[in-house]
Write a structure and sequence with these properties.
This protein is an alpha/beta fold. Helices cover 34% and strands 20% of the residues.
Length: 126
């Protein structure tokens, strides 16, 4: 199977990283930032992961992204397949989605690395 690099990021910090597949989680999935008890947590915290993964549509999107990665990996050009997934600040939805996608891809036999570009950056006040 292919090598896959997943990069989670926040659109409010910098431009999206270059990728074969970029997934924008900002407008269709519940944002833990709006909950005061979750705002200053990150995807490293179980309550954030639970909130994100219980959002309708997330698991279907993980499955669809895994299928897309497998399609890229099956192409005639060898090399690492890069997936970038972003939310507003890069602390909640994007890193949770990245970890879920990585787990799914590893189960499918891919070699996966994950980088959370903005997860440790300060909370964006909005």
């Amino acid at each position: 199977m292919a090598a896959v690099e997943i990069v989670s990021f926040g659109y409010l910090h910098d431009v999206p990283p270059a990728a074969h597949l970029t997934i924008d989680l900002r407008h269709h999935f519940r944002d833990p930032h709006v909950s005061p008890e979750l705002r200053y947590m990150t995807a490293a915290d179980e309550p954030v992961r639970t909130a994100v993964l219980n959002t309708p549509g997330i698991t279907a999107l993980v499955d669809a992204a895994a299928i897309a990665v497998t399609a890229f990996a099956a192409g005639p050009s060898a090399g690492t397949v890069t997936v970038a997934d972003g939310c507003a600040g890069g602390r909640h939805r994007a890193p949770t989605f990245a970890a879920a996608l990585a787990e799914r891809l590893r189960t499918d036999g891919h070699q996966v690395t994950v980088t959370h570009r903005d997860m440790t950056r300060p909370v964006v006040q909005r």
